[in-house]
């Protein structure tokens, strides 16, 4: 059972394939990140994104007290199931001290649109490091509000013209 989990859902007036193509395009992740923490994403080696693809994310992680911490997270795509699911696991900076951080996007056809689900789970595992124990014990006050606020930028009934995260860049709007 994770130490933290959060999920948002929206119905978007676009086909699952289009939404999958957007969230699986790593070059768009800085633009799509609702928290504003993500600064750059580097995908190496260049090429198609698929299960096993690795990428580096440079972030200025915000804490609830307003302070920031710069981190670079090495991540790996663990599910790339077109057009239904895209997921990656973050290999944290302190990989030997944090069990798992995983993000998902799920797409399900619904009427003329798509049910869009965005999820995250954080599992601290059996921590030995006192700093990380403090983070785990205070996660609800320190990090959870920032994560929720970023993910909540997906409005409950998002449409291409009013989606707060601009998930459909102007050249990708559905007529």
Looking at this protein, list some descriptive labels.
single chain; 175 residues; Alpha-D-Glucose-1,6-Bisphosphate, Chain A, domain 4; disordered C terminus; seven-stranded antiparallel β-sheet; alpha+beta
Could you describe the 3D structure shown?
Residues 155-175 have low confidence and may be disordered. The chain has 175 residues and is of the alpha+beta class. It has a single domain, classed as START domain (Alpha-D-Glucose-1,6-Bisphosphate, Chain A, domain 4, 2-Layer Sandwich), CATH 3.30.530.20. The longest helix has 8 residues, at 16-23. It has helices spanning 16-23, 29-32, 130-137, 139-142, 144-151; strands at residues 4-12, 38-44, 54-62, 68-81, 85-91, 100-110, 113-123. The protein contains five helices and seven strands; from the N terminus they run E-H-H-E-E-E-E-E-E-H-H-H.
Number of helical regions: 5
CATH architecture: 2-Layer Sandwich
Strand-pairing-aware structural class: alpha+beta
What is the overall shape? globular
State which percent range the strand residues make up.
35-45%
Radius of gyration: 16 Å
Mean pLDDT: 79
CATH class: Alpha Beta
CATH topology: Alpha-D-Glucose-1,6-Bisphosphate, Chain A, domain 4
Distance between the termini: 42 Å
Whole-number total of structural domains: 1
Largest sheet: 7 strands, antiparallel
Q: Point out poorly predicted stretches.
A: 155-175
Side-by-side strand order of the widest sheet = 1-7-6-5-4-3-2
- Total number of beta strands: 7
Following the backbone from N to C, one meets helices and strands in this order, namely: EHHEEEEEEHHH
Q: In CATH, what is the homologous superfamily?
A: START domain
Helix proportion of residues, in percent?
10-25%
